[in-house]
Specification:
six-stranded mixed beta sheet; Dna Ligase, domain 1; 655 residues; 19 helices; 4 domains
Amino acid sequence: MTRLLVLALVAALAPLTACSAAHCELDPAADPVAVRRLGCAADREVMSTSRDDSVFARTRTILWIVDREDGDAVYFIDPDKYTLHYYFARDFLSRADKTPVGTLAEFNILNYRRPNRRFLLGKLVEYVDQDVHTIELAAGDTADADMIVAGFRTVAARTDLEDVLRYRPVSADQEELLPEIGRRIRTIATDEVFRNQLYQPLNPGVGYGTLRFRRTSTLGGQPLAPTDLVVLDRVPNELSMVAGIITAEFQTPLAHVGVLAKTRGTPNMALRDAWDDDRLRPFDGQLVRLEVTPQDFTVELADPADAQAYWESLRPAQVQVPQHDSVTTPMFDVTRSTLVEVTRIGAKAANLGELYRIQTADFRPLPLPERPFAVPFAHYAQHLTAAGVFPEIDALVADYQAGRVAPLELERRLFAIRWAIYRAPIAPAVVDGVIALAAARWPADTRLRVRSSTNVEDLAEFTGAGLYTSAGMRVSDGREAIARALKTVWASAWNRQAFVERDFYRVDQREVRMGLLVHPAQEDELANGVALTINQFSDVRPAHYINAQVGEVSVTNPTGDAVPEQILFYTWYEEPEYEVISRSSLMSWTTDWPSATAVLTDAELEELAGYLEAIHLRYRTLYPGHAVDAEWKLMPGRQLLVKQARPFLRRDVPE
C-alpha cells in the first residue's frame, strides 16, 4: 500500500463519535500526519503547533498545500511532523502523472516563484491574543492576486473558519496587492496583528531573582541589583545588570536594553498591563523563577539554591583583566586602524577602523563616518592620575566586593569620582591635539560627536551597549567646550550601571581604560536603525534582522510608544526577499517620502543588506562564531551610512 493511500485512508477514517461537535473530523486522540478537512476547533488543536520560530507570540500554526493538478486537493499538515512543505510533498504527492516534486531547490523555485506552479503553499495561523485566524504565504512567494484569492477560497472552504478567516500579507510585494485582494476576500494588515499583541518575548529563557516593581522614572533613586528581576511600567533607555526584565509596554527589539539582555543571557519580555497583572503582583518582593518562552511565560516561587546556581552560571569563573597600552600617546587616524590597536584605542574605534577595509560583493566601499580619529587610553590614564582618583577607585572596588557599600552609597561615591574627573584640568596638549586633527578634517563649526571606546565594550565577550556617555562639541566653541566634552565621556567610565555590570562579570575595574572616538555628528538624518546579521527567530532561515525608524526617533534608545519598522531580510532565497513584522508607527510624520508605509525602499533595503553581508563575512573571521550588531542612518539625499558595528554573540539563557 503506498503512503499516499495510507494518508487517504487516515483522512477518510478519522471522523469518530468521540468528537461531540457536529462537523469535527478527528478523534482528539488521533495523530495523523495530514488531513483533508478541518471541521472544528478540536481538529485544529490536533493538527496545530506553537512554533518557536514564529515572529509573533501566542500563535498556533498548521501548514497547508493545494495541489492544483489534482482538482485543488487540500492537505492540512501537522508542522510537528513536517516542518517544510517540500518534505511532505516529496513523501506523499510524488506521482508519475503529475509535475515532479523534484529537489528542494527545484520545488522552491517552481512553487514559490512561477505562475505555472503545481502547488500553492501556505500556513493557517491562529493569533490567540487577537482572536484572529489567518491564511498566509511565504515571504518569498510571488503569487499574483488571482492565485492568492483562489487559494484562500479553496483552503477556507475546507475549514470551519470560512466565515472568519483573513488573509495576511507578510512581504512588501504582498502588501502592494492588498487593495486589490481586499476587495475580494477578508484581509488583515501586519500592523493590526502586531498592535494587538499582549505578550512579546524579547529574549526567551529562565531567570531567577527577587521580583521588584519599579517605575522607570524612579530607577535613579531606587537602584536595582544583579539579583533583581524587575517589572517596569515603561521601557528604560538604560538599565543596570538585572536577572530579568518585564516591561508593561512593548519594546523596540534592538534597543540597548534588549541587546544587553541577549548578550547578558537574561530573560526579557513585554506584557501589556504587566504592572497590574495578577500573575506577577502576588510575587512582589519574593524570590521567583521566571521562564520566558517564544509563546508564553511562567513565574513561580524559587529555591534559593537554584537561584544562586543560576547567578553563578552567568559569571565567568575567573577574574577578567582588561588589556591596555597606557603609554602610547599619539592620536590615531581610525581609517588606518585595525584590531591590532584595540589595546590602545578601544574596541569601538578599532572595530570602526576594520570597516574601512571592507568592500561589498560588487567592490564598493562601505559608507562610513568621515575620517574619524581616536584619542588613546594613555591620555585617560594620565588625566585620572592627575585628578587623583585611582586611590578612590581602588578603595571603592575593595569596599564593594566586601559588601560594605549600599546602593545609594555606591552612587554617591561613583558621582564623586566622576566629578573629580570632570573638574580636573585637562592637559593642554590633549586639547591641542584634538583641535589640530579636527581642523585638518572639518570646518570649525562642524558639530562633532565624542564617543566612548573602552577596553570593556564592543568586545566579543562583553558588549556593554549603552553603558557609557557620548558628548557633542564644535572646535569653534573654544578650548573649554572641547575639554568639557572629552572629560564628560571619560567620566562616564564610572557610571553606576557600567560599574555594577563589570563587577558582576568579574572585570578587574582597576584596569578599565577609555579611549575616545571623534567624528562628525550625523545630523538631519531621515531615518535610523539597528540590524543583527542573524535571524533571531529561526536558525534554519538565514536573514538580517533590520529595525528602522523615521527621523531622529532612536531605535537604540526609543522614546514613548514609537513602533519601529521590523524587517527580516532573507539571505537564502534565489532573489532578495524580506518579511515585514511591523511598519513604523511614525510614517504619518514623513513628507515627500517614497512610500506611505515603508521606511526604506526595496533598493535601499537591498543596499543595506549588501553592507550587512559584507560586514558579517569580515567579522566572522575577526570574531569566529559571532554575528554583527550594526547601527546605521539614512542621511539627506537618502544616502545610507553605517555608523558602527560590533560583534554579537547571543548568550545561551539557562533552561
